[in-house]
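Hey, why these numbers?
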Amino acid sequence: MKNSLKLTSASLLLAAMMAPAAQAEITANVALTTDYVWRGVSQNTDESPALQGGFDFADDSGFYAGVWGSNVNFGGNESLELDIYGGWGTELGNGVGLDFGIIRYSYHGASDSSDLDFTEFYAGVSYAGFGFNYSVGDELGDQFEVSYGYDFEAVSLAVAYGNYDVSGDDDDYDYYSAGVSGSFGGKSDIGWDVTYWGTSDEADSLFGTDIADDRIVFTISKEF
């Protein structure tokens, strides 16, 4: 349910950030994916393709912020998810990486879309390709995820396993993924990603088998 192109809002956010931090790096990204899957569950009831994109700001101090969006469909009139996030990350001298931040998920397209909005606070640690992330929701439940990634010369492999307590009332399920990614190369430098997603039986009960069943998702992306 969460992370697209909302260029007006993104431009306002970037304008506010650029003034005090002229030396900071600002990048943009856009992607087209066969299905928007978040924590193992499709964010489109008809499992249709999604156009996604955003802007990211990063400072040498480790501070970062960004905005990201995607088209969504939960069976109502909501049509857009827009996420705004910020945090701080660093890598210690022993190679351990730390990441702390907050992300606000908001939904648009209908008068009651904001009823779906929520916020998460997250903390992560990484070392030698391994990662652990824990998120605490203000209205929904907590989530944790363990992951591992390895870069070969031409492609990268990534696997992950997580658990998400949807309501904060023991309505939890497990999810897992395994993917390979790379680049078509050349001046275009267009990235590609193929990921297999799966969930435990509890996800079928919570969301329905149509959007929580196992699937393979293909994504192409470009960073500017």
